[in-house]
Design a protein that fits this description.
The protein is α/β, with parallel strands linked by helices. It is 41% helix and 14% strand. Adenosine monophosphate binds next to helix 5.
């Protein structure tokens, strides 16, 4: 297997595997590089570097930044960001805090819907990680209200679902600006998944144009949860807007069925992205 899997999570956000395990798996798969992209945190960076030392695996350190637009999640991947950038870290802190408040609000909604999930259990499952919906979904499964986390998302927790609560997150344009401000390159994650429940069928072209004007460098047209239609549509849009097309597995360990290395970006695209780092 060659190329870079530019999208992966660990147990420092809502994945279930350690950064060391992900690095070892990436090496075993023969990947050239691994994008380290936990939600709203740069926590895995140091351990990732230590784990990859001497393996030949190239790390692309980043984060998957939470934004919201019209009540639906938009995720912006930021690569090669400076983890000491204060403006970015203040916003990441705020986002992690907001995740805790939002998780409480989601638990209240579940309780109103007669699902007896407890916030304390959600917090326990997240540990030190910023709380994500997969942690809540796992806690709901434990109550016996659903047989797996997929069912929890499909029934209640997907964007726009009866237990969904928006994050007080920044706009996608602001996310691009913050990531660039920290010396990073911004890539729009899985655009086809935007507003899926309401049949929006992905982030509209006008929004991608606006993000491009703000400095967006790439678009994750290749994602395991995209349909062929999404792929074609966003590859075409990337061509029209001169954006780099990227691919990533969005690996979450046992929290999702996506396998590490199931989508990879060729080195030439990674270099094209790198060349778009702000001066
Ligand atoms: P959050 O950051 O708390 O909004 O949660 C986002 C995470 O929830 C994503 O990274 C996915 O792992 C998961 N997720 C979001 N929507 C769905 C869905 N419809 N089905 C399954 N997992 C989902
Ligand atoms: Zn996630
Ligand atoms: Fe995402
Ligand atoms: Fe992700």
């Amino acid at each position: 297997m060659s190329g870079f899997d530019l999208h992966s999570h660990t147990d420092l956000s809502d994945g279930t595997t350690s950064i060391e395990a992900n690095v070892a798996d990436a090496v075993a798969l023969g990947l050239e590089g691994l994008g380290v992209t936990d939600h709203d945190t740069t926590a895995p960076f140091e351990r990732a570097v230590a784990a990859a030392a001497g393996t030949g695996l190239e790390l692309v350190l980043g984060t998957e930044f939470s934004a919201e637009l019209d009540g639906f999640s938009v995720h912006v991947l930021g690569y090669w960001i400076d983890p000491t950038d204060q403006t970015l870290q203040i916003e990441l802190d705020r986002l992690r805090d907001e995740r805790t408040h939002r998780a409480r609000a989601i638990v209240v909604k579940f309780n109103e819907l007669d699902v007896p999930v407890r916030f304390e259990r959600v917090q326990q499952l997240a540990g030190a990680a910023p709380i994500g919906r997969p942690h809540i979904a796992q806690a709901v499964v434990e109550t016996g209200a659903a047989s797996d986390t997929r069912e929890v998302f499909d029934t209640w927790l997907a964007d726009g679902g009866p237990a969904y609560v928006e994050k007080h997150a920044v706009s996608p344009v602001r996310a691009v600006e913050l990531l660039r401000g920290a010396g990073g390159v911004a890539v729009l994650a899985h655009p086809g998944l935007y507003g899926a429940r309401d049949g929006h069928g992905g982030i509209p072209a006008e929004v991608v144009e606006e993000l491009t004007a703000a400095g967006l460098a790439g678009i994750e047209a290749r994602h395991p949860d995209h349909t062929d239609e999404h792929l074609d549509r966003y590859v075409d849009l990337a061509r029209a807007l001169d954006l780099v097309v990227t691919a990533g597995s969005d690996y979450h360990g046992e929290a999702k069925t996506n396998r590490l290395g199931s989508a990879t970006t060729p080195r030439v695209a990674v270099e094209a992205l790198r060349a778009r780092r702000p001066e």
